[in-house]
Specification:
This is Cytochrome P450. InterPro entries: Cyt_P450, Cyt_P450_B, Cyt_P450_CS, Cyt_P450_sf. The protein has helices at residues 16-32, 52-60, 74-80, 84-90, 100-109, 114-118, 121-136, 143-148, 150-160, 167-182, 186-212, 218-227, 234-265, 267-275, 280-290, 323-326, 361-378; strands spanning 35-39, 45-49, 64-65, 140-142, 300-302, 306-308, 311-313, 318-321, 383-384, 406-408. It has 409 residues and is of the alpha+beta class. The chain has one domain: Cytochrome P450 (Cytochrome p450). Helix 4 packs across helix 11, helix 7 packs parallel to helix 17 (361-378) and helix 9 (150-160) runs antiparallel to helix 13. The radius of gyration is 21 Å and the shape is globular. The termini are far apart. Residues 1-5 have low confidence and may be disordered. The structure holds protoporphyrin IX containing FE.
Length: 409
């Protein structure tokens, strides 16, 4: 990998402190240094891309690839895939390039089309109501733990055929694991290893059970594809199940949480939505733009030298596309820092773009719409139960989501 040695400023994109000031930082970068060279806390040099047009182009540019293995020396590769366990979880479509990407995506694409997802409407509404039934009489809740987390995880567990009673255990594992596998910090990997092993064991059991006793769920369908031959290796099967669970709930938790926050911070928009529920789909798009759950696209690597804004991104360099920044770009969005649920032509990049465009976008939109509308209908006087300044963003690499969101109603 060509890591050039001139000094690059350290940027701790993981920290809660960075998350707190990220939007103003991005504004300065878009103006002054739209392609910004920096160093991640693990020493990796990377380029941060912050303008809308560049972000859109980079996501579609096949010179930027997801799987860096062909660009690395043997030594670097050994370091990166140090742990066999980690390798079992990352062989997924999100981190691969064609033709592997196309093959893996095609295996599950059909289950996530808007038509298939529409059929889940009744069940998602039922889960939402059951969750709110349990909370309604309490008069208060932590939106994240009691509502935003259980809803999408129950939905994706049911689609996959995983017992929903295991969701808290899964959450505990995944919080630690995501950090460890998205960025290579050896201490984090070491810390996460026991949890990674438990999770792999869990997925292994699930596969074993479904192999013996297939049902109508996605895991059984994937096992079928694996046993039929060339379509899916065992390693890819583990990685696919892991990706679908993680992508299926980690992000939507934050769509619901960030959506409630944005509405509470903008009471006039909250009232507008309550009196005009038909605005829900444009409200969801605006939440995705304003506080997108995926702040940064997953890492990409330059497959060849690329010149951008007079900066030479060398073959093997890592790039990070700041979706959250592109979504506040003043050249694309009028009054970008204004939260307006009636915004027109809202071409945000919250679901990415190009071949890796979010597979679950129709599902996330439907879950977000049902969750927020039902919440507003059943708890119309929802208010924050803490100072807005006391709210903390989770210190994570790619996501934007609150640690907790206490409300009264
Ligand atoms: C509001 C919720 C969600 C947001 C904001 C979101 C965002 C994204 C983004 C930005 C990407 C592209 C990342 C990149 O190119 O680096 C992506 C990919 C993906 N998302 Fe989502 N996502 C959401 C919900 C979901 C759900 C519910 C699922 C269901 C399983 C899902 C499954 C996936 C998968 C499998 C990929 C990889 C697609 C590929 O590489 O071809 N996502 N998502």
């Amino acid at each position: 990998m060509s890591i050039s040695n001139h000094k690059a400023p350290l940027l701790d994109l993981f920290s809660a402190e960075f998350k707190g000031k990220a939007y103003s930082f991005y504004t300065r970068l878009r103006e002054n240094e739209p392609v910004y060279r920096f160093m991640l806390p693990n020493g990796q040099i990377a380029w941060l891309i912050t303008q809308y047009e560049d972000a859109q182009a980079a996501l579609k540019d096949n010179r930027f690839i997801k799987n860096p293995h062909t660009l690395l020396s043997q030594e670097q590769m050994n370091k990166l895939i140090l742990m066999q366990e980690r390798d079992l979880l990352i062989n997924n479509m999100g981190l691969s390039d064609p033709p592997d990407h196309t093959r893996l995506r095609n295996l599950v694409q059909k289950a996530f089309t808007p038509k298939m997802i529409k059929e889940l409407r009744g069940r998602i509404q039922e889960i939402t109501d059951t969750l709110l039934d349990e909370i309604q009489d309490k008069g208060k809740m932590n939106v994240i733990d009691e509502f935003a987390f259980p809803l999408p995880i129950i939905v994706i567990f049911e689609m996959l055929g995983i017992p929903t009673k295991d969701r808290d255990q899964f959450r505990e594992w995944s919080n630690v694991i995501i950090e460890a596998i998205t960025i290579d910090i050896p201490e984090k990997m070491q810390e996460a290893l026991p949890k990674i092993q438990s999770l792999i064991k869990y997925i292994g059991h699930l596969i074993e059970e479904r192999r013996k006793d297939p049902t109508e769920d996605l895991v059984s369908a994937l096992i079928q594809a694996e046993t039929e031959g060339e379509k899916l290796t065992e390693n890819e099967l583990y990685s696919m199940i892991f990706l679908l669970i993680i992508a299926g709930y980690e992000t939507t938790v934050n769509l619901i949480g960030n959506g409630v926050l944005a509405l509470l911070q903008h009471p006039e928009q909250f009232e507008k939505l309550k009196s005009n529920p038909e605005l829900i789909s444009s409200a969801i798009e605006e939440i995705l733009r304003f506080y997108g759950p995926v702040e940064l696209a997953t890492s990409r690597w330059a497959g060849e030298d690329v010149l951008l804004h007079e900066k030479m991104i060398r073959k093997g360099d890592m790039i990070v596309v700041a979706l959250a920044s592109a979504n506040r770009d003043e050249t694309q969005f009028k009054n970008p820092d204004l939260f307006d649920i009636t915004r027109k032509n809202n071409c945000h990049l919250a679901f990415g773009m190009g071949i890796h465009y979010c597979l679950g976008a129709p599902l996330a939109r439907l879950e977000g719409q049902i969750a927020l509308l039902t919440l507003l209908r059943r708890m119309p006087n929802l208010r924050l139960n803490t100072d807005a300044e006391a709210l903390k963003w989770r210190p994570t690499f790619v996501m934007r989501g609150l640690i907790e969101l206490p409300v009264v109603f």
